[in-house]
Write a structure and sequence with these properties.
This protein is of the alpha+beta class. It is built from 18 helices and 23 strands. A 7-stranded mixed beta sheet has the order 3-9-10-16-13-12-11, with helices on both faces. The chain has a 5-stranded mixed beta sheet with strand order 20-19-21-22-23, sandwiched between helices. Strand 7 and strand 8 form a beta hairpin. Helix 5 packs antiparallel against helix 7 (142-163), helix 5 (102-128) packs across helix 8 (167-176) and helix 7 (142-163) runs antiparallel to helix 8 (167-176). The chain is globular, with a radius of gyration of 26 Å.
């Protein structure tokens, strides 16, 4: 059984080999933590964005979209708190010269204690068989209790240090629990210090007249400064939401794990404006809706979990993450936050403009509270690729790599394959291709044996291969092969539209999540 680390390495190689993700400007040796999406990657990414966008704007008549500019007036970032508070606590190892986020080192330490406990439970489960009671074992086993007590002690210190912004205490936890640098293996650490993550640049033509501006570190602020424009022009009544997909930029010092943490990335965010006092009801609503959205993709319900925040951001009164089981553990793919009236109140103060909402039902003006759902396009892309990547042993000693992508997201929906390159088969195949291409992204392939062509399509996750043979010319039937179980059936050409359409229609997912 290959380790998860090996699987992840294979996945990264697969993404490059099959045109999903390339290192940016690779001919110049690349740029750390910046990636380009290839011809198959961009199709998958666009399908993913469409799935999110339509689930927001079609299924909720009170959610509309905008597309705000990346550059914003610099006071925006003062008001949002990013100029003063958008920092990561960083620590360097003096021997390896590598820089780490102190909070991530401590989270990894906590995860080790969790793993120790789970190993004890698994060992006992094997030993005791069906009579095993895991709850009782966790409450009574001395080794489990000892590890749990240590974990709880570290966790309590960690949460307090984060909430107090106590950098010395973060370092002290790393020292006390003898956390070593993964590269040098030593405990030779510098002090922890804060580092602001915003990229800055200048706007204006002269050195004296240039204004310092920032590349936005999140897309949410573009929604907040426009919320009243949208509300008035769209005659929106609270509660209502504004959705946006866009690029954001963070000067991540510890950017790693492929496209999981990048310096230039894409977010899909929706800010939902509600009456003060109703925010927790809507927080729960969006938590459940967003989890349904993820699970509808069929990657495995057990791969998702909620994780409530230990440290709330300065603006939040509730926050939870939806985490997905990546090859390197459970990691956040989406955050749902109750942001109170922090952002709108702050923009009102800094701009000097009245941006309150007048509620005709209550006959009063107030600053709305906000529930945010914020999902990383790239992280979700990675979670889908990781769940879909499958190595299979086949009968007869053969094997294949197949991407079991959700059909609605697959870059190519059908490949049209003439059995041989003569006897009028390519012409017939082109005819079918020309009919299907108006509805589905299709590929035409006549090179190599049919078996090799099947493998190529498996590797990019194409749900259907349609083979045109001599019988096709006689009775207008083709062989359609299903990707996941490799079964084949003979169908009439006129049926192809419906067979593929039923299988790859986003409506199927929307019905699941709209129930």
């Amino acid at each position: 059984m290959a380790s998860q680390e090996d699987v992840f390495k294979k996945l990264i190689a697969h993404c490059k080999e099959y045109g999903f993700v390339f290192p940016s400007s690779e001919i110049y040796d690349g740029l750390s933590a910046v990636y380009d999406y290839g011809q198959n990657g961009v199709e998958l990414k666009n399908n993913l964005k469409k799935y999110w966008w339509d689930s927001m704007t079609l299924l909720h008549e009170n959610v509309v979209g905008i597309d705000a500019a990346i550059f914003m007036h610099p006071t925006t970032w003062k008001a949002s708190g990013h100029v003063d508070a958008f920092n990561d606590p960083l620590i360097d190892n003096k021997d390896s010269k590598k820089r780490y986020r102190a909070d991530v080192l401590i989270e990894d330490l906590l995860a080790k204690y969790d793993e120790k406990i789970e190993k004890e439970v698994e060992k006992a489960a094997k030993r005791f068989g069906e009579s095993f009671d895991p709850t009782m074992f966790r409450q009574t086993n001395p080794r489990v209790l000892e590890n749990q007590a240590k974990r709880d002690e570290i966790h309590a210190r960690f949460v307090k240090a984060l909430n107090d912004s106590n950098l010395d205490e973060l370092k002290q936890i790393i020292v006390d629990y003898e956390v070593v640098c993964p590269i040098s293996g030593t405990k030779n650490w510098t002090d922890v210090r804060q580092f602001n993550l915003m990229f800055s640049t200048e706007m204006g033509s002269t050195a004296d007249g240039a204004m310092k501006i920032y590349l936005r570190p999140e897309t949410a602020q573009g929604i907040f400064v426009n919320y009243l424009n949208v509300q008035k022009t769209g005659r929106m009544k609270i509660p209502f939401g504004i959705a946006q997909i866009g690029k954001a930029f963070r000067n991540e010092i510890v950017a790693r794990q492929f496209i999981f943490r990048m310096r230039e990335f894409e977010q899909m965010e929706m800010q939902f404006f509600v009456r003060p006092g109703e925010e927790m009801k809507w927080f729960e609503f969006w938590k459940e809706f967003r989890l349904k959205w993820h699970k509808a993709l069929g990657l495995g319900d057990q791969k998702y979990r909620f994780h409530d925040h230990d440290k709330l951001a300065h603006y939040a009164n509730a926050a939870t993450d939806i985490e997905f089981e990546m090859p390197f553990g459970f990691k956040e793919v989406e955050g749902i936050h109750s942001r109170t009236d922090f952002d709108l109140g702050s923009h009102e103060k800094f701009s000097g403009k009245n941006i309150k909402y007048f509620d005709p039902e209550l006959n009063q003006s107030y600053t709305p509270y906000v529930i945010e759902t914020s999902i990383g396009v790239d992280r979700t892309f990675l979670s889908i690729m990781a769940a879909a990547y499958t190595e299979e042993e086949l009968e007869g000693g053969d094997s294949r790599v197949v991407l079991k992508l959700p059909p609605v997201l697959a870059p190519i929906k059908a490949a049209i394959l003439p059995l041989i390159k003569k006897d009028g088969l390519p012409e017939k195949a082109r005819e079918i291709m020309n009919e299907l291409k108006f509805d589905f992204k299709c590929a035409y392939d006549e090179k190599d044996s049919i078996g090799k062509r099947y493998r190529r399509q498996d590797a990019i996750g194409t749900p259907f291969c349609i083979t045109v043979d001599h019988q096709t010319l006689e009775d207008n039937t083709v062989t359609i092969r299903h990707r996941d179980d490799m079964t084949q059936e003979r169908v009439s050409i006129v049926e192809l539209q419906n067979i593929i359409g039923d299988y790859v229609n986003m409506k199927n997912l929307f019905r699941k999540i709209a129930d």
